[in-house]
Please model this.
Amino acid sequence: MESKRLGSVFGPLAMVAGLSIGHFIASVNSNWQSPLISLGNRIIDYVPPPVKKLVINLFGTYDKLFLIATIFAVVFGLSLFVGRAYLSGKRGVAYSIIAAMSIAASWAALLDARSNLFSVLPAFISGGTTLYVLRWLNQQGSESVDSGVEISRRDVFKAIGVIGAVSIAAMGAAKLLAQKASVQIERIKIALPKPLKFLPNPPVDPAITTPGLSPLFTPNEDFYRIDTSLAIPNVSTEDWQLEIVGMVDNPFTLSYQELIARPVFELDATIACVSNEIGGDLVGNARWLGVRLDDLIREAGASADADQVMGYSVDGFTAGFPVATLDGRDAMIAIGMNGETLPLAHGFPARIIVPGIYGYVSAVKWLTRIELTRFDIKHGYWISRGWSERAPIKTASRIDTPSNGAELPLETLAIAGVAWAMIRGISKVEVKIGNLPWREATLGPQIAKTTWRQWWIDWDPKKGVHVISVRATDGDGVVQPEAYVPVDPNGAEGWHTINVEVL
Ligand SMILES: Nc1nc2c(c(=O)[nH]1)N[C@H]1C(S)=C(S)[C@@H](COP(=O)(O)O)O[C@H]1N2
Ligand SMILES: [Mo]
Model:
């Protein structure tokens, strides 16, 4: 094989070897990140908001997959170039590109939230391994050329096989190590404290008899997940602490053991993402277990000048909301979700839950610090990116079943869904079919004003195409407005409307 084509094989091979070793090294220490993950996280931090918006519009929740695919494509392209340059004698060029990539990844690693000087190790070992493997492959190649035997396809496949196997072994070992060290095991062993008073057992869930209707409580594994982290932070309770600092008289710090030794209470609350479109599923309801947030802040002695409570995540994410929001409502530092210890994806070991306001201004996962501060001094992560500083959750209602565009048989069926107006509660839900007058839906249990409420009607349809809309009235008697308002900058408004055809 000629050197250009060989270079196109050796380059990517060396890069795969380098990256998988880097990945393996990163898994040894929970504060280190795989070089590609660090790079991806920096891209998420620095990509201009319009580009981010475009990507999210195009790819929705696959935005991260798209980012990873893009990074892979770029790295693959570079590796082709490096391989060809090296094999055609331009070693300086190959060395420089590998060095530049290692430096870029090191820089990315140093900006990781839990970085230290050693965080650059995975990137440098990746670069070193890539170089070493490239040299080795080239030597194999030139030895065969010296001995007059041209390197054959078989040799190339052998090299691919060996490096592939070593890389897979390294990734596998990394995974095993990560799992072993994993916080997951630690999490499962945690015995949650008991609340002073348990909430009553939930009533029979109407979703049992209405297929397609959202269950009253969203199972943890189905609960929507939104965050800026490429890899879910693995936070061990052993090196975790919660600080309450800032404009307070008595700043203090709690270990996990100290946190869960405090009085805990249960809260049924629905949380929602500001990015949830009309009819969207970035909303879920859970029974949370946690420690009262207002008590903690009172103990710290918040200064009268502070007007914002800012939560910080171990991954650098921040979200802030008005001190005035803590008006007696059951805001908490949550440690449990639906009877389990808080899942890793939802913020283990602890997160903030504030009923009635969107997640991006409150629900910090992997929480590690609460700071009393001022809106004119500090802003949370999404505020400088164009989202509103204050964001109460808007009244909304959603048709779960039938689904939009469904073709339905000519028989009695249920139109059903959920409606929410956290804190205010839901007093009425109405459904409009075509030009018929609004029909009042049957409401499911209102277990708390901080949760959504299920609703349904029976419908005897006629053949043909039907337009179905839903609107909710909150506990204050305010009807959900019809006019469409986009999610940006503080949440969507408008009625959820679907089309179905009865055959
Ligand atoms: N650390 C961290 N916490 C975070 C976020 C984040 O990006 N990072 N996103 C917030 C947003 S925008 C929402 S809507 C909720 C989602 O919580 P969930 O993933 O448990 O549903 O988490 C909030 N907490
Ligand atoms: Mo969100």
